[in-house]
Amino acid sequence: MEAKKTPKADLERRKGLFLQIGLIATIFIVWGAFEWKSYDKDLSDLGKVSLRLDDEEVMITERPLDTPPPPPPPPAAPEQIIIAQEDEKIEEMQVQSAETSSKEVVTVKEVVAVEEEVEEVVPFAVIEDKPIYPGCEKFKGNSEKLTKCTSQKLNEVLQKSIVYPQICLEMGISGKVWIKLTIKKDGSVKGELARGVDKNLDNEALRAVSKIKGFKPGMQRNKPVEVSYMLPVNFTPPQ
Questions:
Q1: pTM to 2 decimals?
Q2: Mean pLDDT in each 10-residue stretch from start to end of the chain (239 residues)?
Q3: Which long-range contacts (CB under 8 A, 24 or more apart) does 179-182 make?
Q4: Which of 2, 22, 196, 232 has the fewest CB atoms within 10 Å, i.e. the most exposed one?
Q5: What is the Cα–Cα distance from 151 to 131, expressed in whole angstroms?
Q6: CA distance linking residue 120 with residue 117, whole number of Å
Q7: What is the dihedral of CA 80, 81, 87, 91, to 10 degrees?
Q8: Domains recognised in the chain with CATH numbers
Q9: Which of 140, 155, 148 is nearest to 219 (CA)?
């Protein structure tokens, strides 16, 4: 079969040249892609900023009318001068100075120091003569037995007087309430809450302690004094 194209129009001979040109173009494109750089836009690239100032608002103020000043106060009445008669006697007031001169000597006859009596409260454990509760008189002079007897007598009074609060029984509240007893000089007793457990138990313990009375007061240096005694009130629900 004879070729229809002329040898000059045959592109097969130039295939190698075209391949080289394509490779060179590809290399340049790849190189350009690697070398391409981009930059962030700065404020100068944001365009123009147009500022439009509004017409300045002019405040219209009214000038107050000139008001006349208030009238001046009326002149004060002149003081009346009373001329005394020649025969009339005028009593003059004499004011004595309270200042004393340096020549005057002030003498102090006697300075009496008044001692303020301070109520002393002595703990039950260290007082010389302990307070005696009715029924413990036979143990006077024996500190250990007197203390034990006092504790037993007070517990008997509490067991007879205390009523376990019903609300505490239902809620299962129990514990030991500490009451500070103050045995006064006349033998009366004052109870104060030292450490509580529950409001209802605390109030019941104070109520029962108020039934304690009849102490013979304690003595310190042969003088009656107030004595403090810590009394535990143990609330245990019945089994």
A1: 0.49
A2: 60 75 88 75 46 43 61 67 51 50 55 57 89 91 90 90 91 92 91 93 92 90 92 85
A3: 179/205, 179/206, 179/209, 179/230, 179/231, 179/232, 179/233, 180/228, 180/229, 180/230, 180/231, 181/209, 181/212, 181/228, 181/229, 181/230, 181/231, 182/121, 182/226, 182/227, 182/228, 182/229
A4: 2
A5: 12
A6: 9
A7: 90
A8: 121-235 (3.30.1150)
A9: 140
